[in-house]
Description:
Layout: H1 2-23, H2 36-53, H3 63-67, H4 71-108
Helix pairs in contact: 1-4
Amino acid sequence: xxxxxxxxxxxxxxxxxxxxxxxxxxxxxxxxxxxxxxxxxxxxxxxxxxxxxxxxxxxxxxxxxxxxxxxxxxxxxxxxxxxxxxxxxxxxxxxxxxxxxxxxxxxxxxxxxxxxx
Length: 117
């Protein structure tokens, strides 16, 4: 189980790093509060300038689609990034705690019993 947690931690760490590189520069407050057409234009222009400023050529991650056309979508994307970071932290803790607890139980000499559910 700890190995699975370590693999999940690695997967979420990779996602958090790949998403975090361009998203760390994204400022959701810049996206205009006007109508949908103005939002789409300002978000697209901002995402394109962000991609060029961060050195991403050819929109590698499709940041224009993630920022989408509204401020809400921008905040949702940042919330997903934050959730990936939080899950990475939780799986790291779990992958360290589970072997420690297993070792303590084994040293205490408590026999393993199957639980009936």
